[in-house]
Write a structure and sequence with these properties.
α9 crosses α11. Helices cover 33% and strands 23% of the residues. By secondary structure, the protein is α/β, with parallel strands linked by helices. It has 2 domains: 116 residues, NAD(P)-binding Rossmann-like Domain (Rossmann fold, 3-Layer(aba) Sandwich), CATH 3.40.50.720; 201 residues, 2-Layer Sandwich (Dihydrodipicolinate Reductase, domain 2), CATH 3.30.360.10. The model has no long low-confidence stretch (mean pLDDT 96). It has a 9-stranded mixed sheet with strand order 16-15-14-13-7-12-11-8-17, with helices on one face. The chain has a 6-stranded parallel sheet with strand order 3-2-1-4-5-6, with helices on both faces. The two termini are 37 Å apart.
Length: 363
């Protein structure tokens, strides 16, 4: 008989942890036992906000992961710390949700994957939009064949990340956060894979990538704030704000994905999917069944047009994670699958250097 509820430790008490904690609180098969942050005041604040009076507070991740009764962990630390957190959790045999991106190098991801597979633990990587109801309804249309055979997909992540985001001081630095694609554009890269595959719970296999990095913002102090709609001097962004990639998948589908940290205006996440019998543009589908069928139909579900974590479907992600543990099944978004998403933008970085398409996989 499976152990219920599963004991949970949340590692990192920043912005996104609030949604992990809330989702666990709403799952009857999970119980949060520990919250860890290098600043214990942050951990206590998260516990208080969630009404977790008896939860243990730690400033050391290894100690929190090893807390008595912990079966699984949510790794919500900054991305440059994921590597050490995952290795510790795997060594202690804990299942884990790992926020995106996984890590800042291919070598780190390789070691993380090997440690997880050796430990035999379940993982879900935080490409949370896979649980967005609109995304799920789109996948049902694709799997059902309403669009025919998919041949081309487009996704874009457009958001002027700057000092309005609490994580920007680390997120703007190349040594800690790598690139615009790694910081946030990876959501669009994963969506590209998701919509390029025919199965309802399947992402396409990338085999080649080519791209360019550009933009006008890198290294400049005077920057925009989309929350206050004004300009001010801020700490500089150390990487290119615009990346545009072309991806070829093993099933013959072509894709285009971009990240734009320089878009003046509010956050948006454009989606275009083209099949030989129909087309999807954002939340509308055109798939005529007769000559008189000329209307675009709205697909149920909210568009992912907000960078606020409260807008994202963490409940679905966490419920899926607990179900994978309980039923001893692998997630469609486990570390082995998620690495394929990361290889696209790591491959693109190699392409920027050599000026030629890069074959995948890299690991």
């Amino acid at each position: 008989m499976a152990k219920k509820p599963y004991g949970i430790a949340v590692i990192g008490a920043g912005w996104v942890s609030s949604q992990h904690i809330s989702a666990y609180r709403n799952n009857p098969n999970a119980e949060i036992l520990a919250i860890c942050d290098i600043n214990t005041d942050n951990a206590r604040r998260r516990a208080s906000q969630a009404g977790l009076d008896g939860v243990a507070i730690y400033d050391n991740a290894a100690d929190a992961i090893g807390h008595d009764g912990v079966d699984a962990v949510s790794i919500c630390t900054p991305q440059h710390i994921h590597f050490e957190n995952v290795l510790v959790a795997a060594e202690q045999g804990k299942h884990m949700v790992i926020e995106k991106p996984l890590a800042n190098s291919l070598d780190q991801m390789r070691q993380m994957r090997d440690a997880v597979n050796k430990a035999g633990v379940k993982t879900v990587v935080g490409f949370v939009l896979r649980w967005n109801p609109l995304f799920q309804n789109i996948k049902k249309l694709i799997a059902r064949g309403d669009l025919g055979e998919i041949y081309y997909t487009e996704t874009d992540y457009q958001s002027y990340n700057s000092s309005w985001w609490a994580g920007w001081e680390q997120g703007r630095r190349k040594d800690l956060s790598n690139s615009a694609m790694a910081v946030a554009g990876c959501h669009a890269v994963d969506a590209l894979r998701w919509f390029a595959a025919g199965g309802e719970n399947q992402a396409a296999e990338p085999i080649e990538v080519f791209g360019y990095a550009a933009g006008k913002r890198k290294g400049k102090q005077y920057q925009y704030n989309p929350v206050t709609n004004d300009w001010s001097k801020q700490a500089v962004m150390e990487y290119d704000g615009l990346e545009v990639l072309l991806v070829r998948f093993s099933n013959g589908v072509l894709g285009k994905v971009s990240v734009n940290f320089e878009r003046i205006g509010s956050y948006t996440f454009p989606i275009n999917i083209f099949g030989d019998k129909g087309t999807i543009k954002k939340n509308k589908v055109f798939a005529p069944k007769s000559p008189d069928d000329k209307q675009w139909c709205e697909i149920p579900g909210d568009c992912p047009d907000s960078s606020d974590v409260t807008h994202h479907p963490f409940q679905g992600e966490i419920d899926h994670f607990i179900e994978c543990i309980d039923k001893d099944v692998e997630s469609h978004c486990n570390i082995n699958d998620a690495i394929k998403t990361h290889e696209i933008f790591f491959g693109a970085q190699k392409c920027y250097e050599i000026g030629k398409p890069v074959k995948l996989p890299l690991i």
